[in-house]
Structure formats: structure tokens, C-alpha cells
Amino acid sequence: MESRFNCYLDRVEGDSAVLLIAGRESVIPVSVLPQGAREGDHLLLTVTVDESARDKTASEVSDLQRRLKFQDGQE
User: Fold this and answer.
1) What CA–CA distance (Å, rounded) separates 40 from 13?
2) Left if phi > 0, otherwise alpha if psi is -120 to 50, otherwise beta: which for 14?
3) How are strands ordered across the β-sheet holding 16-21?
4) Which SS3 state, helix, strand or coil, does residue 13 take?
5) Does residue 71 register a pLDDT over 90?
6) 6-27 pLDDT tens trace
7) Widest pairwise Cα distance in the chain
8) pLDDT at 46
């Protein structure tokens, strides 16, 4: 599932871009902007869940919890 919303590229300050999203400022690295984006542009942001990263992190946490329990003598 994904969400889409509009934002406004307010300004660029060095390596940071300031976006206005729903009236609030958000700072992101300039490197993630689409090529050619410049101050004053309206952008469409798409946000999706990275399921593979989520699953990998959950597996790593589970493994760590098992190792910690083993070290504590709980297993």
C-alpha cells in the first residue's frame, strides 16, 4: 500500500532541502530530490512500506533476543 501527497520545495540550504508538507517544514537531503527539482517546485511524494526491510529487521531483532536469552541462561 502507498500514500501520495503534494509538497512544495521551499528552499535549498547547502545539502538540505526544505519541503513544506501540509503547512509544516520537513528537511531532507538534496540528494533524494528528483533531478532538475528547484526551489518553488511542487512535488508529489509517494510513501510505501518496505516489507523486505521490515522483515529483515524483525528477523535480526528476533535473533538478537534469542542470543541475549541464551547468554542469560534462560534457554
Assistant:
1) 14
2) left
3) 24-29, 16-21, 2-13, 42-48
4) strand
5) no
6) 999 999 999 999 999 999 999 9
7) 60
8) 94
Please state the pTM of the whole predicted model. Answer: 0.69
C-alpha span between 23 and 72 (Å, rounded): 49
Per residue in 22-60, pLDDT tens? 999 999 999 999 999 999 999 999 999 999 999 999 999
- Return d(Cα 25, Cα 19) in angstroms, integer: 6
Spell out the domain ranges in the chain: 2-71
Pairing mode, strands 16-21 and 24-29? antiparallel
| Sign of the dihedral defined by the CA atoms of residues 60, 51, 46, 34, in that order | positive
Domain 2-71 has CATH 3.30.390.50: no
